[in-house]
Amino acid sequence: MAKVLMKGCEAIAEAAVRAGCRFFAGYPITPQNEIPEYLSWRLPEVGGVFVQGESEVASVNMVYGAAASGCRAMTSSSGPGISLKAEGISYLAGTGLPAVIVNISRGGPGLGSIQPAQQDYLQATKALGHGGFRAMVFAPSTLQEAVDLTYNAWEYAERDRNPVMILMDGCLGAIMELVEFPEMKEPDRKGTKAWDLNRNEGDTRNARLLTPYFPEAILELKNNSQKKMFERWAQNDVQVEEFMVEDAEYIIVAYGISARVSKEAILRLREEGYKVGMIRPITLYPFPKESFNKLNYDQVKGFIDVELAIPAQMHDDIALEVKDRAPIYEYCRSGGLLFDDDGVYAAVRKILDGGAK
Amino acid sequence: MAEYKRPESLKKTPSGFCPGCMHSLATKLIAEVVGEMGQVENCVHIVPVGCSTLNLAYWQGDVLGAAHGRAPAVATGFKRSNPDRLVFAYQGDGDLAAIGLAEIMGAANRGENFTVIFFNNQTYGMTGGQMAPTTLIGQKTTTTRYGRDPETTGYPMKMCELISTLEAPAFVARYALNTPKGCRDAKKAIRKAFDIQMASKGFSFIELLGNCPTNWGLTPLKTLEYMETNTIPYFVPGVYKDKYKDEVK
Amino acid sequence: MKKSLVISGSGGQGVMSAGIMIARTAVSAGKYATFLPEYGPEQRGGSAKCTVVVNDEEIISPLMAKCDTLITMNEQSFKKFGASLKAGGILIANTSRVLSEITREDITVVRVPADDLAVELGNIKCANIILIGALIGADAGIITEEAMLNSLEAKFASKKQEVLDLNKAALAKGIEYGKNAK
């Protein structure tokens, strides 16, 4: 298929349709409105269902209902709405239902600002809801990557019977760039999925899709199997881009739009002889621990956490792996203020000059 | 003479409800209708949070658990992607009229093609008898020790009346389960609601007035009297909306 | 070569539609392009700004401190973004609304009374097309006249011939101003 110029939110929406998503419920919130707007006409075209929910809470619970029938389902929102969806996301994890949750993130806390930010990292990776579960969190940095990650998101969600989050800043949600879409997957609705309340003829009914709450031993078993699942993710499912790290003395750690601005700065600094590289987590959870642990700490002099979040939210995850073997610096903007190429370049250069001398 | 037996939709396990509680009665009426319609296999019971959750232990058929108050949203998602299944949510008053007010009104207003059965016993049973939105004025609960005071807690919420103001719902009705006639009428209404749904004719809402002997602090027999003198005069039974009066029997 | 363009004005002036049209035109000519809109929270009349980057290869960062070309459609946006134009860059000012004196000497200035010209042509809405014309006439190196004409034809294919003709005339008018400014 030819490449098309498309808006980030719409690219995610179309990728979802092509992944076989046939149910979407959502509630208006900036800067992600183009996702529900697009799906409101696109889903009916392919026999799918779009519902504008009466609230964020209702929307995520509609997705829960649709997912219970083997239907690939999705909801999207931005920070304040994701907080409201926390209940439903926890129930998805508790009941063991696959779904994709998209967060096109903006400034916070509270109402914050409608401008782009990366201030939902901690929420996404540590506590998407009550009860101590995790979800895989994918953070695209180009629209092509957003398309590909969304397209594959249900494979993980269904494999694990767990929600998956796509976390993308509002900048990438609003931007238009070229994308190429993968082919249309036909949704599998033949009742072959273990969590589907629609079984084939002859199968025993009497299915129970519930978040376990008694007896306690069953819940503990579930918690244990989830723990093992999170460990498997760390082993098998990490996605990361390592850019010019082989000889790097300083390593920028950034994801999403921050990584793109940082990459431009790295190329400029390399031209000036600075040995700079970048670790770009694509899965924010599971975090790419190995990328930090395999480094030669005689060579690496420091890390620079570049985020659209103050205070930097990824810092703790980096620190856990670096284990005081090198200092971690920060260059951050937040509240809806963006980086630019000069700003990141100048800030990183200042750290390099200060650190090297 | 008709044979009295356990409905097909109920498992052969004892009910977890308190002795004399009308949840058992309400569940049995629904189960009988589902069985009589030959819908045991096709039925999906959306179980919310509250005493009504106990149903999941002995409901024979598919059960989908919903978060507190969210049953109409979960039912929306499920029914929209599976229009042929018989879907009903069975919700209590705290679940439906307090924390789930947005979800019930949203689903009713969209005219979603499923049925909500609302068990109104004017209290939060499972959590120990706190005030519900439907608690009567002057009624004592664990959070209204001296009786519900409208000055600070407002008035009991009349859900049938509220929902019947909406354009979309097809059938809205209330019955009291404290008399055999009330039970018979309620069962007929449940049948009618399910028939409406299976004919894809839209949203149906059946409110069942029930008791809570444990939290009301009355013997089961006394609750029947209490309902007659207190509950029924305020929550007046009857059909509040019926779009298909003559079409669906 | 990587070229960046900022278009700024107030909501309703066609800032975003001009930006999208330029990005689409560049893409149809085989280039890579990014379009980034920035809105205020208002639905009408707030500030509007977009950044378009065009390149022969994939675009790494779509965010930059300084742009190669700046189109300002009103006074307010000229004051706000005038300094973000690189030295040696091209400023295209809608002088129907940009009233301040333009004092920078390290840039090429294209003065186009786009609103007045658009009204003369018959519709204020084509002011943004006039400014796109100026961009082409001033050789900003972002899109070509031919590619833009193709875009206009595609965009207005379903409209009446007069609409296309009006936009073509607007484009030609802008190109004339762009060329004269060099």
Question: Quick gist of this model?
Answer:
The complex is a heterotrimer of chains A (357), B (249) and C (182). By secondary structure, chain B is an alpha/beta fold.
Cα end-to-end separation of chain B = 24 Å
Q: What's the average pLDDT of chain C? A: 94
Largest sheet of chain B: 7 strands, mixed
CATH evolutionary superfamily of chain B: Thiamin diphosphate (ThDP)-binding fold, Pyr/PP domains
CATH domain class of chain B:
Alpha Beta
> What is the rounded distance between the termini of chain C?
21 Å
Helix-residue proportion of chain C: 25-40%
Strand content of chain B: 15-25%
Integer count of domains of chain C: 1
The general outline of chain C is: globular
Query: How many helices of chain B?
Result: 9
The CATH topology of chain B: Rossmann fold
Q: How many structural domains can be distinguished in the coordinates of chain B?
A: 1
Question: In oligomeric terms, what are we looking at?
Answer: heterotrimer
Question: What Rg of chain B is obtained from the alpha carbons, in whole angstroms?
Answer: 17 Å
- The low-confidence runs of chain B, each spanning 5 or more residues with pLDDT under 50, are none
Helix content of chain B: 25-40%
Structural commentary:
The complex is a heterotrimer of chains A (357), B (249) and C (182). With 357 residues, chain A is α/β, with parallel strands linked by helices. Chain A folds into two domains: 4-236, 3-Layer(aba) Sandwich (Rossmann fold), CATH 3.40.50.970; 240-356, Rossmann fold. Helices cover 41% and strands 22% of the residues of chain A. Chain A has helices spanning 8-18, 34-45, 56-67, 79-95, 121-126, 143-160, 170-174, 216-236, 256-271, 289-293, 315-322, 341-356, and strands spanning 4-7, 21-26, 49-52, 72-77, 99-107, 113-116, 136-138, 163-169, 176-179, 208-209, 240-243, 250-253, 276-281, 283-285, 302-307, 328-332. In chain A, strands 2, 3, 4, 5, 6, 7, 8 and 14 form an eight-stranded mixed sheet that branches. A five-stranded mixed sheet of chain A has the order 11-13-12-15-16, with helices on both faces. In chain A, strands 1-9 form a two-stranded antiparallel ribbon. In chain A, helix 11 (315-322) links the parallel strand 15 (302-307) and strand 16. The model of chain A has no long low-confidence stretch (mean pLDDT 94). Chain B is of the alpha/beta class. Chain B contains nine helices and nine strands. Chain B has a seven-stranded mixed sheet, sandwiched between helices. In chain B, strand 5 (123-124) and strand 6 (130-131) form a beta hairpin. In chain B, helix 1 (22-36) crosses helix 7 (180-198) and helix 2 (71-81) runs parallel beside helix 4. In chain B, 54% of the residues are buried. By secondary structure, chain C is of the alpha/beta class. Chain C has one domain: Pyruvate-ferredoxin Oxidoreductase, domain 3 (3-Layer(aba) Sandwich). Helices cover 40% and strands 25% of the residues of chain C. Chain C is built from six helices and six strands. Chain C has helices at residues 15-28, 75-81, 114-121, 127-137, 145-155, 161-181; strands spanning 3-10, 32-39, 47-55, 67-72, 85-94, 108-112. Chain C has a six-stranded mixed sheet with strand order 2-3-1-4-5-6, sandwiched between helices. Chains in contact: A-B, A-C. Strand 10 (208-209) of chain A pairs parallel with strand 2 (62-65) of chain B.
